[in-house]
Specification:
The chain is an alpha+beta fold. 53% of the residues lie in helices and 15% in strands. The chain has six helices and five strands. The protein has helices at residues 10-14, 44-49, 56-61, 66-73, 82-102, 105-124, and strands spanning 7-8, 17-18, 21-26, 29-32, 76-80. Strands 1-5-4-3-2 form a five-stranded mixed beta sheet. A hairpin with a 2-residue loop joins strand 3 and strand 4 (29-32).
């Protein structure tokens, strides 16, 4: 289903992480909360810590009221582009797989040396 709001990547949202330019991502939506930082009851530090990641759990754990959730909607500037997240996760999985293939020699060498040392140790007794 096409969306009518602007799409942002997590990378784009994470670049807005200062008191003068602060965006947070909650429930797949991107919010520009810069103008609200000074008014936030928990202080601006709490919000600034939630930038650059999905802050849904942090938001829910704080136990925000219904009116806070309604107020939050006024700061919504778009939605999170989930297609870029899927690509990034796939890239990470591929890199991990490549690293595993590349460095298989180290654990095999450790096991081999351990077997040889154990063999010589038992042979001396």
């Amino acid at each position: 289903m096409p969306t009518l709001s602007k799409l942002y990547t997590m990378q784009e949202a994470s670049e807005h992480n200062t008191k003068d330019d602060c965006w947070v991502v909650i429930d797949g939506k991107v919010y520009d909360v810069t103008s609200y930082l000074d008014e936030h009851p928990g202080g601006d530090d709490v919000v600034l810590v939630a930038t650059g990641k999905d802050a849904t759990d942090d938001f829910e754990d704080a136990g925000h009221s219904k009116s806070a959730k309604e107020l939050m909607e006024t700061f919504c500037i778009g939605e999170l582009d989930t297609s870029s997240l899927a690509i990034r996760q796939t890239d990470y999985a591929q890199k991990l797989k490549d690293l595993t293939k590349q460095y298989w020699v180290v654990p095999v060498a450790v096991v081999s040396v351990s077997v040889v040392v154990g063999f010589f140790y038992l042979r001396k007794k």
